[in-house]
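Board notes (copied after class):
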Amino acid sequence: MNRYANFRILIVDDNENNLFTLRALITRHMDVEVLEASSGQAALDIALHDPRIDLIVLDVQMPEMDGFQTATMLKVRQKTRDIPIIFLTAAYKTDEFQQKGYDVGAADYLLKPIDDNQLINKISTYLRLIEKERDLSRQLEILVEERTRELRLANTYLENIIGNMGEALLLLDPEGRIKSANPTACRMLDYTEADLIGMAIGDVFEEEETEQANAFMGIWLEALIRTGTISSIGARFITKDQRRVPILFSRTAIKDETGEITDIICIAKDMTGYTRVDGVGTGN
């Protein structure tokens, strides 16, 4: 199968003989689909309503809407702005004339009378570039899909670990408000995750420790900025039904690329039944 069989080229010229010649030259050497337009407006209509135009060969000298105006209209529309345009002209006339074409979006020029080899070589060059760009886009899409699958699997794996871990995990914002809680934290505190979200971390400590916990947020942040982690301390959670749960409590900072703390991970181990640790009783 011809490598260019899936490509579509729009040729635009107000002269029917030129259109016939262009079509004959292109289809003699390349197995591509050729569409024709005899005016700038007709070219616009085709390009805007056909999502599969790959390349436009556009005559510059046309009445009413010339090639420069047509190219300008094509390049300001999102659907057509990336289609390469090869201008056809009897002569460059001046450097300003040539530059004007590039300024309005021309990729290249071909001089009339058309040289068969030059026409086919230029079209082949741009179709190869389009083909390569599409291959790269497909490869990028595959990589993105693979990466997305990997991240999804990693997130699922992480969620399973967090969901099944024996310690309570609370995710806080830098002000100490709870953003999420794992199932163990919810069971330990007798709250749903929805209940916990938005609560201050001090609200889940027993009353005499709440003020201290809230006051320590500033100290926590200073220590987390310096070290990234604060080692375990003894404390007591207060549950929804006012039970006291002795815990070992540690905090770790999550920082962005600038070093600013974006989140704080708090992990609490239930010490019920253990001997006193850091001043925390057995809870009995």
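Comment from the instructor: The chain is about 45% helix and 25% strand. Strands lie at 8-12, 33-37, 55-59, 85-89, 108-111, 168-172, 178-181, 229-238, 244-255, 261-270.
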